[in-house]
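@channel sequence for tomorrow's demo:
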Amino acid sequence: MKKILSISILLFLFACEDDKADEPDEPVIFDGTYKLSEASMGCDGATDIQYVTIDGLKVCRWDYDGDACDDGDDCYYKDSFIATKHGDALKIDFGDNEGSLVATRHGTNGLKVDFGGDGYEIWDYESSEVKTYSPICSND
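structure tokens (generated this afternoon):
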């Protein structure tokens, strides 16, 4: 009787154990603000201040024109794009044969932006807040 009871308890414990394989993975959330890493600036050592903000599928790139790389006005150029979700990645198609990029997680919170064979950039996590920058440069 003790053997049957012991076996019954073991079977019960194994039957009640969580089955992680049956649980869906947590969705990857990209929302927030990211800054171009120094290693990805590629401006002959000059600082190139750029941010990317992601809010759902809306992606905005903010490029500061007054940094050492651009040496321009004290304003930000802003480009907006709509992404599509592809598994654990965001894909942005620029249209008109301009190419596309794929953003995936890099490290804990950063982004790796792959240009499909034309290299990649690393963007460091700044904030979970979707920030905006101003003033916006005029396109004159």
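heads up for whoever presents: Strands lie at 32-36, 50-55, 58-64, 76-82, 84-86, 89-93, 100-106, 110-114, 120-127.
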